[in-house]
Structures are given as structure tokens and as C-alpha cells.
Amino acid sequence: MNNTPPVRIRVQFSKDGDLRFTGHLDLQRLFERALRRSGLPLRYSQGFNPKARLSIASALPLGFSSEAEFLDFWLDTEIDLQEVQQRLSAALPRDITIRHIEAVPNQAPSLQSSLLASEYHVSFLPEIDTQEVAAKLSALLARESIPFSRRAKTVDLKDLLLAANWQRTAEGLELSLRMKSTPEANGRPDELLSLLGLTAGSYQVRRTALIFNADEMTKHG
């Protein structure tokens, strides 16, 4: 048993290409394998089936790409961060890119418990009438509540939507959404878009940011 304090590493990474269709548990297993291949001195869990200690923030829905995924893992000893990034990058598939890496205090709260919201960018196929979509969204948001059946319960999407803004680009109107992402309440853009009559194949969603509780993230720093 290693009684020395571990070194906690935080990674921001992007997820694109075919890996958009990799689920949260499979993504975690992918990182477990990559970390083992990296040769880094990983800190493992205790027990009969030890595993590399790691934690990924906020599961990303299937089909979404992202530039703002976060992962914490732990090392037994301190290593130069540039070397950590080089070794891990070499072990990862090409559709995952490390965007930033840093060491964080072991006493800091978990990524998931500190998460407040997610920001998304939605683009549409050329044949979609985005003016009509914008009008439908305005009408939907004018309601007092937006109930949506999610498995065995009903959630109010209006409570989960924090902001919705349209931007005009060379490709047409595109939508930015900020939605709650906490352990208790998690907003999904695809649910909102389905209420506008849109199918998954008519748009693309990219997560552009995760918003954390700054006070929680820094109070132990």
C-alpha cells in the first residue's frame, strides 16, 4: 500500500469524430486503457480488482462532440506536466485531443459535485428553416413550464434552460444554449430540440464549456 499523497492531474480534452458515439462508461474504459499504455505511475484503487483512479465530469450524450470535457486522474509521484501530456496523448485515439492539463489539490471537490452548467452550440442542416425553428423556440419559452417525459419521471426543461441565443454565421442561424448540469438536475439540448420537431439527424451539437462553481473549485487551493 502506498501511503504517500497522490498527485491529482486535471485534463481538459476534446471529443470528435466516431468517438461522438462512445458512451460515458466506454469512454472511461478507453481512458483507463490509455493511462495504462502511457506508462505513467498511476495511483490505483485498493481491493481485489485495483483500477486506475480517474473521474470524468458530466456524461456527454451520444452523438455530441465537445471541446470541454474534463478528467481527473491520480499519479503516485510528481512528473513534469508536459511529459504527462505527451505520454497520454500518444496513448489516446486521434479523435481525442488534450487541450489543457494541470495539477489540482487533492482536497478540491470532485468535478461532478462542482459542476453548475454546460454550454452547447447547435448548428443545423442547410434544409432546416432556422427562422421557423427560432419562432417555435420563442413560443415554447413563452410557456410557464416545458414538461418533458424522461424515463420514469417528468422534468421541466424551462427550469433546466439558463440561456438561449441565436447567432448569424456564414452557414445561417446557429443556436447557443446554457443548461443546468448538476448532480440533481441535468439539461439536455436534444430533449429541447425534439420539442421543436427536430430529429437527431437534422442538427449537430457541440459542448463548448463546462461551468464550475469557482468558490468550490478554489477554496482548498
Topology:
Layout: E1 7-15, H1 24-38, E2 54-56, E3 65-75, H2 81-91, E4 96-104, H3 111-114, E5 115-124, H4 130-141, E6 147-150, E7 153-156, H5 157-160, E8 161-169, E9 172-180, H6 189-194, E10 203-212, H7 214-218
Parallel strand pairs: 3-10
Antiparallel strand pairs: 1-3, 1-4, 2-3, 5-9, 5-10, 6-7, 8-9
Helix pairs in contact: 1-2
Describe this structure in words.
The protein has 221 residues and is α+β, with helices and mostly antiparallel strands. The protein contains 7 helices and 10 strands. It has helices spanning 24-38, 81-91, 111-114, 130-141, 157-160, 189-194, 214-218, and strands spanning 7-15, 54-56, 65-75, 96-104, 115-124, 147-150, 153-156, 161-169, 172-180, 203-212. It is elongated. The two termini are 27 Å apart.
Name given to the CATH architecture of the largest domain:
2-Layer Sandwich
Radius of gyration: 19 Å
Q: Could you tell me how far the N terminus lies from the C terminus, measured between alpha carbons in angstroms?
A: 27 Å
Please mark out the parts with pLDDT under 50 across 5 or more consecutive residues, or reply none. 215-221
Strand content is: 35-45%
| Overall average pLDDT | 92
Q: How many domains make up the 3D coordinates?
A: 2
CATH class designation of the largest domain: Alpha Beta
In CATH, the topology of the largest domain is named Alpha-Beta Plaits
The number of E-state strands comes to 10
The geometry reads as elongated
**Secondary-structure element order, as H and E?**
EHEEHEHEHEEHEEHEH
